[in-house]
């Protein structure tokens, strides 16, 4: 159970990190234009 929770936490962190990168990429693209 503990290991599963850790895995879920890691997956959530990765998803948030990816979303942040995408948002930053969009912001940079908009500012670039």
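Sequence proposed for the structure above (33 residues):
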């Amino acid at each position: 159970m503990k290991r599963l929770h850790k895995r879920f936490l890691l997956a959530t962190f990765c998803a948030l990190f990816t979303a942040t990168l995408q948002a930053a990429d969009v912001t940079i693209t908009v500012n670039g234009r």
